[in-house]
Amino acid sequence: MFNKQVILNKAKEYNSFYLYDENIILEYTQRLKNNFPQVQFLYSIKSNSHNHVIKTVFSQGFGADAASLGEVQISSEYGLSKEEIYYSAPGKTDHDIVNSMEKSVIIADSLSEIERIDKIAEEKNTVVEIGVRINPNFTFYSSSGVPSKFGIDEEDIYHKLEWLKGLNGVKIVGLHVHSRSQELDVEVMKEYYRKVFDLSFRVQEKLGIQLKFINLGSGLGIPYTKQDEELDTKKLGIETSEMLYKFKGKLSGTKIYIETGRYAVCKSGVYATKVLDIKTSFGKKFVILDNTLNGFIRPSIANMITSYSKDESPCANEPLFTQKNAFEFIVLNNKVETKSVDDSEIETVTLVGNLCTSTDVIADNIYLPKVNVGDIVVVTNAGSYAAALSPMQFATMNPPKQLFLTRNGDII
Ligand SMILES: *Cc1c(COP(=O)(O)O)cnc(C)c1O
Q: Is the backbone of residue 387 left (phi > 0), alpha (psi -120 to 50) or beta?
């Protein structure tokens, strides 16, 4: 849960802000390390690149899942070694490759990228050890593949075996598969891991190599709504250990990685936004808040998708949209601190922002305890894909502050 007093205090200074709690990041990252003792974790920086958030996650021994050259450079500046930074993204330029090859392990995303890395390496008279992202012949839910802008189709690797083996500047030492995010079912995750291992051993055998690493990608989900059941990472960890034991003959010194952004940081963050004005129009009550669509875009997108979709539970499109009711809205004020819906005065309100667009709606016709101007609305699940995703250049508004509550209770 979040620290109400800190939010109320800071709301005197700021009309909208994020608050990240170091203790919660430590809780989630340590849980993963404890539950998966043989696995190493990579933090997907794109989910939240606030410097203290990154520092906290790295302090727990996480490496970096870098989605751009910029994220490779940030990770390197934080002191991570080349072997701790994995650079996976489509469309890397020659400039990206040249500037990341000594700082990170590049995960090639296409055959033409491998060709370019090879050429650059040959010109520099060196051999670059790379990973390859594979677009597998399966998904989380089916045993056939789908077209993807990410990675190389497994079959294409087999068609190019001789060419790959003959490259002088490039040596394939690892595989990366990332198929989807936000899965809560242990059995689905386990089956996915098993399929990635099978795929890795097929590729390993056909290429005639011993892989140095297998990156299982992400998938670790967190409960967004009250109905979601938490992913049993303890059980998944045990299943994974058993799998690793079973496969140990094929895993000679191979490092196993799991990537995560949201699992490490989502629950650590809340977004606080102040009630600037309240009005009623044609009988509908609007609560006008600071920096909603432009400060934390996901609730607005969720509202838009769920209002357009005929489907009761529209499918996710990460990281912009996860599911219906993925955020809780909690009203705080200085008088009673937290108002609960058990309080007598409940009203139906629509939460909107102060932008000049009518799409800036974060919740339409929801029940809230009576809200007054100056109250604070706290939005949960704001530690990942929140500040990092928001269109703060729109309409020249002051962006929300990002505050960090340390384990000692200091606010940075
Ligand atoms: C974004 C991303 C992740 C992180 O996903 P989460 O759901 O936040 O854990 C992991 N791997 C890759 C390749 C990604 O692009």
A: alpha
Q: How many CB atoms lie within 10 A of CB 2?
A: 20
**3-class DSSP assignment, residue 117:** helix
Nearest ligand 1 atom to the CA of 385 is 8
Distance in Å, CA 141 to ligand 1 centroid: 18
Does the C-beta of 178 come closer than 6 Å to ligand 1? yes
Return d(Cα 47, Cα 387) in angstroms, integer: 9
pLDDT the model gives residue 139? 86
Residue 79 alpha carbon to ligand 1 centre in Å: 22
Distance, CA of 162 to chain centre = 36
Model confidence pLDDT, tens digit, residues 168-226: 999 999 999 999 899 999 999 999 999 999 999 999 999 999 999 999 999 999 999 99
* Average pLDDT over the chain, rounded to an integer: 95
Minimum CA distance residue for ligand 1 atom 8: 261
CA of 263 to the centre of ligand 1 (A): 10
Q: What is the largest CA-CA distance in the chain?
A: 75
* Half-sphere exposure at residue 108, Cβ-oriented, CA atoms within 13 angstroms: 24
198: which residues sit within 8 A by CB, 6+ positions away?
A: none
Contact assessment for residue 299 and residue 292, using Cβ atoms and an 8 Å cutoff: yes
Residue 381 CB–ligand 1 contact under 6 Å: no
Q: Is the CB of 218 under 6 A from ligand 1?
A: yes
Strand-pair partners of 367: 348
Residue 336 has pLDDT above 60, yes or no: no
Among 302, 297, 300, smallest CA distance to 316 is for 302
